[in-house]
Specification:
The protein has about 140 residues and is an alpha+beta fold. It is built from three helices and seven strands; from the N terminus they run βαβββαβαββ. A hairpin with a 2-residue loop joins strand 6 and strand 7.
């Protein structure tokens, strides 16, 4: 499998397709798209030139966040989520970002811990799905 990625300063149709399939169709979220998509940096990882994974990096109230990390089911287990997070961290670091936070589904917290993120005490609900805020110093 040949992997590549591309960064976009807009919500690319490939990003939208992956998020619709994973978050809306598979996981049942309704409120997937928001005004953050208008200003975020988006990434798409391509496997053999086919869109496979996505995520976004954005600044809100002076704090930097990674979010909407998703890989299509047929590409899970190929480390594409790690690639998305790592490339977004690099993009943040090149912009002078020192800390990044994210809101992880609790069932995915272990994935982010392996990438160096630490859980905070902030547990919250997003459309009936438990989440935890996690942070990392770059």
């Amino acid at each position: 499998m040949v992997l590549s990625y591309q960064l976009f300063d807009f919500l690319h149709p490939d990003c939208k397709m992956i998020r619709e399939r994973v978050f809306m169709q598979e996981q049942g979220f309704q409120n997937e798209f928001d005004n953050i998509d208008d200003t975020a940096l988006h990434i798409v990882v391509y496997a053999d030139n086919k869109p496979a994974a996505t995520g976004r990096l954005y600044c809100e109230s002076g704090e930097w966040h990674i979010g909407r990390i998703a890989a299509l089911p047929e590409y899970r287990g190929c480390s594409l989520g790690s690639m998305v997070v790592t490339e977004l961290e690099k993009a943040g670091a090149s912009r002078g970002v020192k800390f990044i936070s994210l809101s992880a589904q609790c069932r995915a917290a272990g994935f982010y811990e392996k990438l160096g993120y630490a859980q905070t005490d902030d547990l919250h609900d997003d459309e009936g799905c438990p989440h935890v805020t996690m942070i990392k110093k770059l």
